[in-house]
Amino acid sequence: MTLKMTLQGGLIYLTLLFFLATLVAHRFNRKSLRRGFWAAAFVAAVTSLTWRGLHTGHPPMQNLFEFFLCMAASLWPLSQWSRWKNGIDTETRDALLGIVILFPAGFILSEDVRRLPPALQCPLFIPHVASYVAGYVMLARASLLALPLLRKDVEGGALRAADVAVRQTAAAGFVLLTAGLLLGAMWGKICWGNYWHFDPKEMWSLATWLMYGGYFHYRLKHGLRMHRATTVLLWLGLLFVVLTLTWINLSRLFSGLHNYA
Amino acid sequence: MKKLIDILTGMGTAAWTCWICALFSVYLAFLGAEHAAGFMAGPGMQVIVAVLIFLIGYSGMRAVRRRRLDSAALHIGCVCVMAGWLWGQHANRSATPDNPAKGSMALIDGDVSDALWTGAYLTNFVGKVPFSIKLEKFFIEHYEQNGFDREAGRMAPIREYRSRVTVSEPGKAPYVANIRVNQPLYVRGYHIYQMSWGNTVDRFRRPVVYTVLQFIRDPGLPLVYSGFMLLFVGVLLFYVRVFRIKQPEELEDKA
Asked: What is the ipTM of this complex?
């Protein structure tokens, strides 16, 4: 737990502050103020990401620290997407998610600059990582959107509306997850000679993909009757995402090709 | 029999199959890459994958009959990927010294070779490829040293490994090509990768740098890549279908 006394750190803390202000404004029912803070948080997140890119001289997607900065910057566009597609307001939940995402970048992970090793210099680098950034954020948002489905007082039209939003968000996340997995496999062929290496991180990503595959099959079979069980399944998928991102990246137990973080 | 297959390809079984496969891949993650690959190459696992191919392919064909194109593309895509992988495994098993599937060669500047080797020190002979490679020069290029590097008194990290080679195929004029990390060379069914490098001495005991090139032949690759395409198309169709679902208030407007 360390404070970053750098411009990068300052920008991260500013973003965190704006996320927090969004939550506070929501608490006091100041809608326009909340909108303002939420947009300001986006500007701060993009500034911190851009600064990181300029400072390191490569696309800021090399390690977990940079991955989290990307995730924070993707929150605002994705919440606009939900407003456009589903007509729902997810700003508060997304701000909460932003705090959870940026906390490790601000206080735990190191911001050391390392130049890109030859293995990472590939045109597939940005699409592969960007798919995973947006996909993981989408799936986390689907899990948050699904929380009302667990409540007893939500039923009828409200239940159906929430369910449609959850399904559509999860489907978008699943598209991105698939794209990330396939682009990663193609990159593996170009870089290491095989599209599948049974590398621990690959296996965990496949497990995540299969968990969501199981979720969609289960949802198709049972429809809205088992909405609590499907919500639990969605959270189980998110557990796999979180494990893939943290435990697998950081522990020495799973050493392999993906040890950049 | 038909009834059994229907149960095995039912939606509930499919969900459970996904979860069991997920748990199994977590188990393989704990095994580590090398053991997991060895485990999956065993005959038992190949049979299980073949059974999965049959069941998923059956679901895919059923989806085709029902005009559910998203589901059809996704399932048949999975089948193509797994079948392509099995085909590649078969090519590995049936490789001969005349037609090797996988191997490496270590070269110093000026060496010519067509022999592939395997093992930790590249001491086991695998076979010969139908063309020869001459290493013109092996380059290691570094980034420019920056302030941090000078402060720490170290060299800047490596930016590029590159082997410049001359390829001599029978019936074709020799040509020069560069092999870099992330930029393999494709010759007569073989992808050639910049795999590794090291320091050694030549026969006059002068220090030299050698490069290791890896050769891989995978006849299942086109099938795997068409599977990737199908999976991607399928997942996009799936997205479109999920987004056709109307929001409840729109439904109420129509009623």
From this structure: 0.91
